[in-house]
């Protein structure tokens, strides 16, 4: 397996989805590849967050209910040395029915867990693949031979850098020391198309340092702006810009 192929296995490795032979080869590759090591760390953290997001704790009163039921259920005497009546279901028939019902319920529960785990794995794979594609696209912009960079000071002591590649027709915004947005708000980035603002995505409200691959092509945009919007973003700016930056031209 070539080194180029190994670079594409970070998502599958983070989800423990590689065959044993490929896993061993990839782990040897990790010993010398800091970029893949970092990407695996980030993808593993993403998968863990997905798991926590859908996990549901047991009801608070579950333990108390079980203990209470134990005290009220009569223990069945040993069957050794006695015979149960065969006329009608009797106690054995009832307990067999209870046991069968319990087995069916358990099977259904474990089946539900299996479905849930499978869905979680699929969601994690999709999230990991999307993150990997974005990281690859972001790296392509930053490493493009025609990449041009422009930096400026933003409000509150923050600093912003925009990198534009005409060959990729994409742009990346790098922020450092950004103050968190107000509660329930988010920073939204906009392309400036000759005065018309076109949404280019949202920044992570919890990250003071962030690297954002702007959504959509640069096309004829001459710059970008940042506004404070309600969580989830807006179709058009609803506040004055907290930052305006021109794209580099030379």
UniProtKB/TrEMBL annotation:
Q: Locate the region Disordered.
A: 137-156, 223-250
Q: Name one Pfam family in it.
A: RskA_C
Query: Where located?
Result: Cell membrane; Membrane
- Report the residue ranges that make up the Anti-sigma-K factor RskA N-terminal domain in this protein: 6-44
Please indicate which superkingdom the organism of origin belongs to: Bacteria
Q: How does it sit in the membrane?
A: Single-pass membrane protein
Residue span(s) of domain Anti-sigma K factor RskA C-terminal: 104-242
Major location, coarse class?
Answer: membrane
Record keywords, A-Z: Cell membrane, Membrane, Transcription, Transcription regulation, Transmembrane, Transmembrane helix
InterPro entries from the UniProt entry: Anti-sigma-K/W_factor, Anti_sigma_zinc_sf, RskA_C, RskA_N
Query: Where is this chain compositionally biased, Polar residues type?
Result: 142-154
Q: Which PANTHER family match?
A: ANTI-SIGMA-K FACTOR RSKA
Q: What is this protein called in UniProt? A: Regulator of SigK
Q: Which species expresses this protein natively?
A: Streptomyces pakalii
